[in-house]
Write a structure and sequence with these properties.
The protein is α/β, with parallel strands linked by helices. 37% of the residues lie in helices and 16% in strands.
Length: 263
């Protein structure tokens, strides 16, 4: 006859097994749509970027002048599609830059399923594609949002890009997993680890870290640690009342403007 302890152990093991085999569906939410819905007030070309493993990534390319102006590449977070970022792009378009926002595999109708290595490959192939448009590394600004900060730090290592912007970054997915699943052996179970904090030492370009102190998804202490571990030159924007989805208000736009003008 099962004892209560035995039943509890079995239940715990079942939870561990479930989380292990379903962890990517818990991490990536391409069909989620919880962002402000706005219409685009900027011109863009819809392009499809080929990947080295035969996929095509949907992207929007807003071009002012590729030769004279810098180009910002936007790597989005773990939920939603390109349209969910329009409220940011409507304001980013007012800066004196070009921008390209790309959807990862499995997002915005793209083929494939998201994984850490897959997203890294998508980012690298996007950067190669941009180079083929005659945009040199020195004129590229990397912008990562939430999960996209993990992608952005990976591809910015040992590169000479113009700058790196991290919005609501985490130190690692292991740390984030422990925050939510403190009762599980996250370090042993996790496949996609996004070890951002370990890669910062390899990034020598200007960096701006933006993180709301009231973030209820990625603890603010993670963004603060990312900033403290980053190499100079580095800048921060830490509003007290912002949650994970930061307010694109005058203060944030001013912080972005100052950074963009400094690089």
């Amino acid at each position: 006859m099962f004892t209560l302890v035995t039943i509890l152990i079995l239940c715990y093991l079942l939870i561990v097994i479930y989380v292990f085999f379903n962890q990517r569906s818990l991490l990536y939410h391409p069909s989620e749509n919880n962002y402000t819905s706005e219409k685009a007030n900027f011109n863009y070309e819809e392009v499809y970027i080929p990947t080295s493993d035969g996929k095509k990534l949907k992207a929007w390319f807003h071009k002012k002048n590729l030769k004279q102006k810098k180009t910002l590449i936007f790597f989005h977070g773990n939920a939603g599609n390109l349209s969910n970022r329009i409220y940011k792009l409507n304001l980013i378009k007012d800066f004196d830059i070009n921008f390209l926002i790309v959807a990862y595999r499995g997002f915005s109708g793209n083929e494939g399923k998201p994984t850490e290595e897959g997203l890294y490959q998508d980012a690298r192939d996007t950067l190669k594609w941009l180079n083929k448009q005659n945009v040199e590394d020195e004129k590229i600004i990397i912008y990562g949002e939430s999960l996209g900060t993990g992608v952005s730090t990976e591809v910015s290592q040992n590169k000479n890009y113009a700058g790196l912007i991290l919005e609501s970054p985490f130190t690692s997915m292991v740390d984030a997993g422990k925050h939510y699943y403190f009762y599980l052996p996250v370090s042993l179970l996790l496949k996609d680890r996004y070890e951002t904090i370990k890669k910062l030492k390899n990034i020598k370009i200007p960096i701006l870290v933006m993180h709301g102190e009231n973030d209820k998804i990625v603890p603010f202490k993670m963004g603060k640690k990312v900033f403290s571990e980053a190499n100079e030159p580095k800048y921060f924007y830490f509003p007290k009342d912002d949650d994970h989805m930061m307010e694109y208000n005058e203060n944030l736009l001013e912080a972005l403007d100052k950074f963009l003008k400094s690089i």
